[in-house]
Amino acid sequence: MRTVNGLFDDYDNASDAVGELEASGVPSDDISIVANNSEEWYRDDDRSAAAEDAGAGAGIGAVVGGAGGLLTGLGVMAIPGVGPVVAAGWLAATAVGAAAGAAVGGVAGGIIGALTDSGVSERDAHVYAEGIRRGGALVTARVSDELAPMAERILGQSTAVDLDSRRRDYEAEGWTAFDPDAPAYRSGKGRRVP
């Protein structure tokens, strides 16, 4: 199994990528999405019963998949340094599990840890976490070697962020690594986040 990732500046492009992955044969159980919700685009009344359970402490793993695909099981959680996110899938479940019983900063470390445990470099994991903090959405897929080129094509589409370019942009601002103690980022309505 390989892990393939795509960072997107908005949820709509990320959800389109999830749909393409599912339509191409990647099982919902092997796909994750974590999207910033600081602008509250996803409201409590949008949640499914499963997401309600996750918000009550059952864990994101309880909302993964379902007959309608990954996106039918979105749940809302808060990540220190990121703020509120909408999430579903194995990455969110792994991050929540890694943070169980941890200090306040543990959930963010859980996402970085979950990514690095799946083969993502720590350097890239920090950029992905910062991208989510700044309003983006991360799609992650665990795929076989034979499905990897297709997943890379889908998650590398023109609407995806070029990770190296984004890292350079962040570093030009003085950023060095994701800081789980940083205040939650609010981009302002309608503004594309760099």
Automatic annotation (TrEMBL):
<dbReference type="Pfam" id="PF11181">
    <property type="entry name" value="YflT"/>
</dbReference>
<dbReference type="InterPro" id="IPR052948">
    <property type="entry name" value="Low_temp-induced_all0457"/>
</dbReference>
<feature type="domain" description="General stress protein 17M-like">
    <location>
        <begin position="6"/>
        <end position="71"/>
    </location>
</feature>
<dbReference type="InterPro" id="IPR025889">
    <property type="entry name" value="GSP17M-like_dom"/>
</dbReference>
<protein>
    <recommendedName>
        <fullName>General stress protein 17M-like domain-containing protein</fullName>
    </recommendedName>
</protein>
